[in-house]
Amino acid sequence: MEQNNSTNPTKLLKAIRPQRVIWPILIGFAVIIYLLAKDFKPGTFDLVEFSWLTLLGLFIAFLMMALRDFGYMARLRILTENEFSWLKTFRIIMLWEFTSALTPSAIGGTSFAILYLNKEGLNLGKSSAVVMATSFLDELYFIIMLPLILLMLDWQQLFLLDITDTSPLASSLLLLILGAYLLKLAYLVVLSYGLFKNPRGLKWLLLWIFKLPILRKWKQGANQAGTDIIESSKDLKNKNYIFWLKAFFATFCSWTARYWVVNSILLAFWCCDYSTLDHLMIFARQLLMWIMMLISPTPGGSGFSEWVFTQYLGDFIPEAGLTITLALIWRLISYYPYLFIGMYLLPKWIKKNF
């Protein structure tokens, strides 16, 4: 099978160059500094009462990130049928997250994941199947959760809609979220069809689409994607429902824990009566934020993520300066650790495997 350029070891070496890691850090901090310079007011932190609840909230935030990673590890062991030890699984997940942190959100780290799994001992077909299955389960989580959230919450409040607000921001966000959701739904339908029904037909369709002049330069990648789907289908279509239930439960725990990180941070720095903190709405807003972050062209959504946080969660926080500071704390807990862990692990992994 022809090797996919995106999983070429040479590109892995380029991924750990210092400037590749520095860029997302610089972009994120540049946006934070700009927002602080624009909106920060003296006395902002006078609103915060530091107490044992602050420490408890931050501890829970870190605990949620640990649960999130544990969920990913458990899912990987389920999908590989316990092929890897917990230690090896941890290493794969950290490397996967590192490459996700260095690529735009829409691309993610999946292009490297097949290589990680293959070099750790899985054959190429099985590696492709596992990566495709993780993509399927992630998209399924979003597709199921958004309608459930809409049934439970005031959708106008959720989408920041106000009949008195004539600014284009609210309507633009709504259109962006709905458009992204429909794209995710279409992707899930096409992926499900290819994995479980007609993989060769999907490969033919991909190659036909990528004959178009505007897409022709990506035809080789489309051919590889089609081949991966065919290989994946052989391994996945005969799995029973217990297998998929366990894998989806691990996915559910992982993504849900990721979102509760912000709830925990707001709990730590909440400036008002704790009983007024609407945790379900905060959780739901993050679901929408993550859909919006998929369009970010920056590595790991740097800059755009911080801005979306201030726009979409700012109404829960009394001061803009505090909102920006909490956005930075959120990224320090949920994003930057993977950069530093990956910088430590990836050179050793490359030296061992190449």
UniProtKB/TrEMBL annotation:
Lipid bilayer topology: Multi-pass membrane protein
Localisation: Cell membrane
Transmembrane segment boundaries: 21-38, 50-71, 92-117, 129-153, 173-196, 241-261, 282-300, 320-346
Coiled-coil parts of chain: none
InterPro entries per UniProt: L-PG_synthase/AglD (IPR022791)
Top-level lineage group: Bacteria
Gene Ontology cellular component annotations, sorted alphabetically: plasma membrane
Keywords annotated in UniProt: Cell membrane, Membrane, Transmembrane, Transmembrane helix
One family name in Pfam for this protein: LPG_synthase_TM
Entry protein name: Lysylphosphatidylglycerol synthase-like protein
UniProt lineage: Bacteria, Pseudomonadati, Bacteroidota, Bacteroidia, Marinilabiliales
